[in-house]
Amino acid sequence: MKLSKKGEYALRALIDLGIAGEVGRELVQVTELSDKESIPAKFLEQIMQELKSAGIVVAQRGKFGGYHLARPASEITIGSVVRLIDGPLAPIGCVSHTAYEKCSCPDEEHCGLRMLMLDVRNAIAGILDRYTLADVVEVTLRKLRRDALPLPFATPRSAVRREPVKSTVASRRTARTAVPRRLVPVEGLLSQLLPDYTI
User: N or C of the chain: less Cβ packing under 10 Å?
Assistant: First the structure.
């Protein structure tokens, strides 16, 4: 699985909409998202229309219109967005749960390559389906605050008054402590959600 530019742009725009919602901003225009993320505006508009058709974002038309998330960020998994934009997560069709395709292997049941690729698919899906947009937004805001950087889409007043984001991540953190230390990365989202782990 390789995330396409379209998939990358969709996720970056959704993270921005999640941040905007957390800092009290109701709507964000495509031009603002495009400027912040250095994404071509016309391409981003097409992506936003696709996200709208899928019920992930809502658009408000007019001079002061824009986009916002259609449902709470905690209900939008990263895996669901990647599948929507880029299709199945499986590296080969014979291990896909959503788009199975028979391969050319004469003995699929005993194919070592298929078994390996099934593990790859499960690892990718396990991570992308475990984390929600809210998880990514929480970590992003935490790092921005830690580094004393201005919060995107926030007015100075809301940036000062806003308390750190609390999501369902904190309540799930206890359940994740069973993750073997060797699997926890030094950098990345998981390292931010489980700060007590070190390798």
Answer: C
Residue 164 burial (CB < 10 Å; 0-12/13-18/19+)? exposed
Q: Answer whether residue 84 is part of any domain.
A: no
Using alpha carbons, select from 10, 62, 67, 56 the residue that is nearest to residue 37: 10
The CA distances from residue 155 to 23, 115, 142, 146, 167, in Å, are 8, 51, 17, 18, 22
Q: 3-class DSSP state for residue 134?
A: helix
Q: What digits encode the pLDDT tens for the residues 92-128?
A: 777 777 777 788 888 878 888 888 888 888 888 899 9
Q: How many domains does the chain have?
A: 3
Does one domain contain both 3 and 94?
A: no
- Write down the pTM of the prediction: 0.76
